[in-house]
Amino acid sequence: MFGDLKRFDTAPAQRLDWFRQLIDEVFPDGRAADIRAVPRGSFPMINVARSDEAVHVYVFAAGLAPDDLSIDIQDNVLTLRGRREPVAGNDEQSRARPVFRRERASGEFVRAIALPDGLDAERAEARHANGVFEVVLPKREELKPRRIEVQVA
Amino acid sequence: MNEVVHQTQQSQPEAQRNENREPAALLPAVDIFEHADALMLIADMPGVTRDSLHLEVDNNVLSLEGEIQLSMPEGLTALHAEVSGQRFARRFTLSHEVESEAISARIDNGVLSVTLPKKDNHRVRRIEVKAA
């Protein structure tokens, strides 16, 4: 479902090799980036979807336990705050050992996203499974779609 | 050169299979570092469960593949997507020092840790200097 959106600026280049990425940076393809696109490597990545009843926010935060992420809503802005501990291999004892790749982000992060109007923050719920947090924000009753029956005259 | 051609032919069915699924594959971010007796690989694969993860060593190539399992209700419309794909995939060539039979892995909160033990004769060994 999310595959048809191109909100992640660098998604196509992500699969390509470093040389291609370098070329793309030097000669950008001129396509307009989405206004809300984030740079490559942002952590955590976020998907937002809506249904008739609610707005669902999926936060892809691998390595965070449920207690590691704080989720706040104020004035229709959802703020995600947390800290991801660096993996072993960063401590004193193993510092002398070679590190070949370090692509994973660690440390503190804050991300904020604006939500659509008309959500009921009081009834919001959050779930966590396998490093993905799902925040469900129900719509207020008056904003749910309604079918209007046509009366026979 | 010949060797490369040979390998390509050999793995053609697999290559075709990969080609069909390729557009949706995301590249997981990884950390790779070395311990005295093993190489460690840590990969971020949020949404991948133990059952949807597929690890394989073939011809000294380690492939990580994982399907993102999200329980999404019917009738959702996407508003914003930074993760636009259903699966993660990445491949690494192993060096000959890795004991491929003894590779072990675990996945915890969407973080995959793979331990690639070194063969006995490649481990770091400290040699004690004896007093004369």
Automatic annotation (TrEMBL), chain A:
It holds the Pfam family HSP20. PROSITE patterns: SHSP. Residues 37-153 form the SHSP domain. Belongs to the small heat shock protein (HSP20) family. This is Hsp20/alpha crystallin family protein. It comes from Franzmannia qiaohouensis.
TrEMBL record, chain B:
PROSITE patterns: SHSP. Pfam families: HSP20 (PF00011). InterPro entries: A-crystallin/Hsp20_dom, HSP20-like_chaperone, Small_HSP. It comes from the Bacteria. Transmembrane segments: none annotated. This is Hsp20/alpha crystallin family protein. Gene3D superfamilies: 2.60.40.790. Residues 21-132 form the SHSP domain. PANTHER family: HEAT-SHOCK PROTEIN 20 FAMILY MEMBER (PTHR11527). Residues 1-15 have a biased composition (Polar residues).
